[in-house]
Design brief:
Elements (H helix, E strand, L loop, with lengths): L15 H4 L13 H12 L18 H13 L4 H16 L3 E3 L3 H17 L7 H12 L4 E2 L1 H5 L4 H11 L5
Antiparallel strand pairs: 1-2
Length: 172
Amino acid sequence: ATQNPIEQEGTYPLPEAQLDRFLFKIEVGYPTRDEELALVRLHGNRSARVRLEDFDLIPVVGADFLDEAREMIAGLHMAEDMIEYVVDLVRATREHPSLLCGGSPRAANMLASAARASAILEGRDFVLADDVKRLTGPVLRHRLVLAPGAEVDGTTTDRVLGEIIEQIPAPR
């Protein structure tokens, strides 16, 4: 889903229940000038079929690989102390004074899954605390709601998550 700033028309903020269903919130900036030129050229030509090759994109994997990857992620054993770390991080968001709404149990599950995937991508059969720390922002930032006072003060969810990561001891 696309979530534009409130001053832009066309999309609207999603309710918390829907935001919680997304694995990551990825910040996407503007395209380069050349990319934007290519987009405008293609958009103006309704008869043109947009192809991945038009943007120097090629599929990296197929559907079968994705199915296998899902199975690998689900099957990767996660040590109990790492599971506790994930749960403690998410639970801490529910008690942080700068947050009106913290992470849900689904958020903890998604953070654990993302950490498992990270371990596999790095060729490991175990999750490190660094996997969890690195993915805490992308997995949780869109699931948290800042308290009005914190938002006015310029606090961000990433700043709050950084504080929580510093406060919760990581397993060794």
